[in-house]
Amino acid sequence: MTTAVGRVGADGMAATPARRVGRLHREGLAAYLFLSPALLFFCVFLILPFIFAIVLAFSDWGGFDLSTLKWAGFSNFGDVLSFDGTFVKPILVNTLLFAFGSVFLATFGSVLVAYCIDRLSFQGFWRVLYFLPVVATVVAIGNVWKMMYQPAGLINAVLNKLGVNSVGFLSDSSYALPSVTVVHAWASIGGAVLILTAGLKAIPEMYYEAAEVDGANSWHMFWSITLPLLRPALLFVLITQFIGGLQSFALIIVMTGDGGPVNATNVAAFEMYQRAFKFGAWGTASAMAMVLFVIILAITLLQLWIARRRGEETS
């Protein structure tokens, strides 16, 4: 009797891991089943187009019949990276200036706005107010600012009242790119403000109370407490803002039409759009996309590396 009971207990203990593995297997299948719509969408609209773009970057194709697809090797990359062409200078230079300028303005402005909102009453109202440009369409934002930038627009009217001559914000090649950069930064502040205000709310108040007891002023608390503890949210904002700046071209189309004057506002994404859909040079456009992808990846990895190094130094 005792031997039979011991055998049943041993069999039950031996069967338990097998049942556990079977249950985990069924749970895994159920998880993949629920994820299958998202995975299918990801493969159809992201993975397959990315692979096709890589193929096109090494091919010569007019964009209509796949039977005309011809292998071109690295010739597209040679044309794109040639210093005699227009992609490296001024298009790539304009892209980097536009991205870095918008990132600096948007990040600085969002930190300032989020810090002020965190110390105001009716914080929900102010967050919604600053988030409204994110909800608005690029066409609406571009057209409103385009009217404000006109020689008879609001901004020049204010400058004339102050005794300053009218400025050709969108017609002068010296002012066109900075003018569009300011608009892009203004339109992207709202999303960054929401992220940074959430990061500010996560900072414990006891740090500020201890610093106040030690006699620290507002600037010392901001520089020594707020910014270090806000680093994860700030890093996310920097990366997303920079990627958005490098990929932006809709605002360029709305405000300048053709990247003018004299290619002053022509950026990489807009040039890719023109090469593919206007001139039918899909191979060259895909090569530009690959070059831009490598630049975005390199800068993102550099930002992550710098943030990790600073985190190790301060820890």
TrEMBL record:
Highest taxon above the source species: Bacteria
Assigned keywords, A-Z: Cell membrane, Membrane, Transmembrane, Transmembrane helix, Transport
UniProt keyword annotation of Ribonucleoprotein present: no
Any one Gene Ontology BP term: transmembrane transport
This protein's record includes keyword Kinase: no
PROSITE patterns: ABC_TM1
TM region positions: 29-58, 91-116, 128-145, 175-196, 233-255, 279-306
Compartment(s): Cell membrane
Principal subcellular localisation of the protein: membrane
Coiled coil stretches, renumbered: none
Ranges for domain ABC transmembrane type-1: 92-303
Protein's membrane topology: Multi-pass membrane protein
GO cellular component, as recorded: plasma membrane
Gene3D superfamilies, per the entry: MetI-like (1.10.3720.10)
Record family assignment: Belongs to the binding-protein-dependent transport system permease family.
Protein name: Sugar ABC transporter permease
Source organism phylogeny: Bacteria, Bacillati, Actinomycetota, Actinomycetes, Propionibacteriales
